[in-house]
Amino acid sequence: MTEPLSSTLTSPLWSLGVEILVSLLIVIGAAFTCLGSVALLRLRDFYSRLHGPTKATTLGVGSLLIASSIFFSAQGPGLSLHEILVALFLFITAPVGAHLMAKAALHLRVRGQSGLPPDALLDGQGVAQPDPQAAPRPVPRPASRIDADPLRDAD
Amino acid sequence: MILPWALNIAFVLVSLALLLSLARLVIGPDKPDRILALDTLYVNTVALLVLLGIRLASNLYFEAALLIALFGFVGTVALSKYLTRGDIIE
Predict the structure, then answer these.
(1) Do A23 and B5 touch (CB under 8 A)?
(2) What residue segments make up the domains of chain B, in order of their start?
(3) ipTM of this predicted complex?
């Protein structure tokens, strides 16, 4: 498996500075990718976990793609721009996917550490105006509430 | 020869990231957690494919990386829409 790698390192544009730069970018990118998954495993509620991987992995994969672009540009006959396509696609779709996952979590009433907004907001009916004369009526809880699960508070 | 060492370290780190995401996919506890873990698995796979492309010095792996990124996004959107609306295509 070392054969293709060693044969490319004799290219005229390949110097020690480029090698150090590519190696640094690869290690930084892989470290950020790993950190994103550590955050996914270690953080406490879903909304924190949503934050970790969507930022760290786009930064990590972006760094890896920059390293790959420099590597193939230095060893090939021209600029290598395939990586820009992958990076552009990832950078566009990661926030959209995170937004949709957050909407799904709010719809399922997944509890965060700071509680949830009122039900009227979550169902998209605008801000409920409190009536000072009316007695506070209990909010009906849907049957599919995740926070009714007793196992949720165990961890 | 710094690059082979950097590539080995990076392979270990990205494989560790895949294992950690797999653990979150297994333990849940909610459905959106599993979708997020699946999305992270796809992104980590893209990173692993880019690393393999550098290791083998082959341009072939970018198309595969792009396709996997595309499938991951489609899967994330479909699962999230299913959880939100109860239907994928309305």
Answers:
(1) yes
(2) 3-85
(3) 0.88
